[in-house]
Amino acid sequence: GGSAAELAVPSGTQAAEQQQQQPAAASMTVSPGEALHSVFNTRKAVFWHINCVQRSTFAYPHHSPVTHDINAITRSSANIEVLVGFTSGEIVLREMHKPTEAARWFNEQSKMVDSPVTVVKWIPGSESRFIAAFENGALLVFEKEFLSEAKIEGSMPSSSKQKSGCVVMPQSAARTNPIMEWHFPKRPPQAIYALSFSPDCVHLAIVGRDGLLRVIDFNEKRVVFERPSYFGALYCVAWSPDGHYILTGGQDDLVSVWSFHEQDIAARAQGHASWVMAVAFDPYPSDSVTYRFGSVGQDARLCLWDFSSTGLRPRKLTVSQPVNSPSSPGFHLRRKKKKSAKAISEKAAEADAQVPKGKNEVATLVPLVSTRLHGEPMSDIVFREEHIITACQAGELKIWRRPPKVHFSAV
């Protein structure tokens, strides 16, 4: 594995463990509990470790795993149930402590969806249902106990009822996957790159190639709001532990902090020199008013940040006309057909919501810690009470000890 880089925090910090595997680690999952369960996938294999000791390796010489997720409900001290998604479009479910038993496959030979899987997630509160996103923008819900599968046509019947920006089509055949399809006819998504459920399991945040953050009410099946990135695709998304804020990162080299209640951007964090590939809030804050989070990117850097909701203040606006005036971008009036003031206001608000705010309109955060930890682009970050875990695309997993009782901003 080579020597570990020092984390830019007090001198007591060091790399506690590191593991080197074959190239192209795509994602990592660490399951909470007394035992440290870590699962990470590389180009042709999936690895399972308990307390940094390798327990099982599943090789896929003819497949390329790109995403996985651990079933938090069925997890035990000795076993975990893991979903793995592949570039072939197939999804496999296996119990990691039973390496010789046959795994269960979904979308086998891409009969349902002929597109690479981009994300798989267990639905919180359910031990048998999971959601999968695909490169072509498909978003499907599966039941692990159902064996029959129906091909997805990719189009919506005329009888489908649109409800607040999305169409949800339940599968008509009994005990057949997928049990639900999600469509967004107003702005059909391109590839979906990341999903994250809110802490109360009610809302789902979605990001992808089109650069939009979509937040949907998963229970009521409606779009709550959509907001654009500053530039380019978004690769990662995460909720704050209290559900008040959402993080996104992507091709604009920024970490954007979004206020869920205000449905708008609250701050932009500037510190990376390349694409941001993973973001995470620290669920172990030092006080009740400070939010802490971390990010890793293609620049192989770890950045640590913090903010308080009362401290987010945008720079002063310098504009020569009101934001919602008739000559503002996205606001158009037709002389031949009069519209009510309410209709005009709603249209203007919708247009403004799809235009990224300028730098002077949003608070800016700078990193409290910024350090290069890996020799290759980094792909994931996980916070634990005593450690910070990072992974890179070369297949290296590092576990860093936190400095005892030191606030990030003191560094």
Would you mind describing this structure in some detail?
The chain is mostly beta strands and 411 residues long. The strands form 8 sheets. A 5-stranded antiparallel sheet has the order 10-11-12-16-14, with no helix packed on it. A 5-stranded mixed sheet has the order 21-22-23-24-28, with no helix packed on it. Strands 1-32-31-30 form a 4-stranded antiparallel sheet, with no helix packed on it. The chain is globular. Residues 1-26, 156-161, 316-339, 341-349 and 406-411 have low confidence and may be disordered. It has one helix at residues 341-353, and strands spanning 15-20, 27-31, 37-41, 45-50, 53-59, 65-70, 81-86, 91-95, 104-106, 117-122, 129-134, 139-143, 148-149, 167-170, 176-177, 180-183, 192-197, 203-208, 212-217, 222-228, 234-239, 245-250, 254-259, 264-270, 276-281, 290-297, 301-308, 363-365, 369-372, 378-383, 387-392, 396-401. A hairpin with a 4-residue loop joins β11 and β12.
Concise synopsis of the structure shown:
With 411 residues, the protein is mainly beta. It contains one helix and 32 strands.
